[in-house]
Amino acid sequence: MKTTISKVSQHVNEEVTMGAWLSNKRSSGKIAFLQLRDGTGFIQGVVVKAEVSEEVFNLAKSLTQESSVYVSGIVVEDTRSPFGYELQVRNIELIHEAVDFPITPKEHGTEFLMDHRHLWLRSKRQHAVMKIRNEIIRASYEFFNKEDFIKIDPPILTGSAAEGTTELFHTQYFDQEAYLSQSGQLYMEAAAMAFGKVFSFGPTFRAEKSKTRRHLIEFWMIEPEMAFMEHEESLEVQEQYVSFLAQSVVNNCGLELSVLERDVEKLKSIQAPFPRITYDEAIDLLKEKGFDDIAWGEDFGAPHETAIAESFDKPVFITHYPKDIKAFYMKPDPNNENVVLCADLIAPEGYGEIIGGSQRIDDLDLMKQRYEEHNLSGDAYQWYLELRQYGSVPHAGFGLGLERTVAWFSGVEHVRETIPFPRLLNRLYP
């Protein structure tokens, strides 16, 4: 019976056949241990000389790393294995012999591994990170479908910028100027006016010359937008969503978290509600922690976010930032027009901002005023203005950065490991 590693639990004490690659091996005299992978998981194949033909045993001992094979054998339970099962090999058929696979079990430098990212993805650690990434994506669809959101796909090529053009990739769109999208948010606002509750999931681009462990040039965002929604209600959706993602990863990625040696208890504690502090309170907290040079009106950097997060045992919302350091579309606080109804969700353990969100301006005259203050082109943004002209309603939304969330849940240090083929300031290959 042909099967995959992920389904061997359905075939205990049965003989199965699977296609696999050899990730590693060791042998001692009359027994060979093959570490096999097939894309769905990893399993150990045990080849006992007395139980197979001489040809099969010699093949097992001579197999090279990443050679592809068909393997047949009996599935047995193995309590010593993190996976819980192993394969008692009966036959091996060589498909392709790999020669001099460049990534060996020894230590390699990061640049070497990034140059060979197309092969590095095969490793057990990278496999675990990608499985967690996949679970976050799957759980996102489950959450928003359950909450009656509709998925809408905004364009990647756009003639306008969500937050200004200084960090956008410019391109020529026939005879017009165009940009690679830095956010689908403006279009999601239009979709929310048509469908009520919507979300998008897609790539975004930032031409930001940053080399930190939290930044990518191309990354993926989940961006919900909700009509008839106030700021506080949006925060509740955000914390419920993040809690749902964390518990989905805990429940469905136990083996992967074990491979990564992740402290699962820290993920289990990610349960709504999350603490909230205002920007003003965050400034006071930072001064207490020795950041004497931080002044009101300045944005927070990575050291500031980390220091704030260390004061809480859960993710923390920082709300009501100064208007002048936030995007033009954010709604001012009715009680203090110097700040806006917004929030950043800061993850613990130094992973920084995971979500940025706000209530959007819904007043036509105020939005026109913002256009003038930010020198926005009436031609490029006319359609966005019309959302306030025809049936405007209170609405709010947010964007969750997928790669930072994967890094946080996985416990990996750098976001370059959280996307299959990272685009960094100095990397466009492979």
From TrEMBL:
Record flagged with keyword Transmembrane helix: no
Catalytic class of the enzyme: ligase
Principal place of residence: cytoplasm
E.C. no: 6.1.1.22
Domain Aminoacyl-transfer RNA synthetases class-II family profile positions: 130-430
Lineage: Bacteria, Bacillati, Bacillota, Bacilli, Bacillales
Protein name: Asparagine--tRNA ligase
Keywords assigned: Aminoacyl-tRNA synthetase, ATP-binding, Cytoplasm, Ligase, Nucleotide-binding, Protein biosynthesis
Catalytic activity: tRNA(Asn) + L-asparagine + ATP = L-asparaginyl-tRNA(Asn) + AMP + diphosphate + H(+)
InterPro entries: Aa-tRNA-synt_II, aa-tRNA-synth_II, aa-tRNA-synth_II/BPL/LPL, Asn-tRNA-ligase, Asp/Asn-tRNA-synth_IIb, NA-bd_OB-fold, NA-bd_OB_tRNA
Provenance organism: Halolactibacillus alkaliphilus
Subcellular location as annotated: Cytoplasm
Gene Ontology CC: one annotated term: cytoplasm
Gene Ontology BP terms: asparaginyl-tRNA aminoacylation
GO MF annotations in UniProt: asparagine-tRNA ligase activity; ATP binding; catalytic activity, acting on a protein; nucleic acid binding; transferase activity
Coiled-coil residue spans: none
Oligomer status and interactors: Homodimer.
Family classification: Belongs to the class-II aminoacyl-tRNA synthetase family.
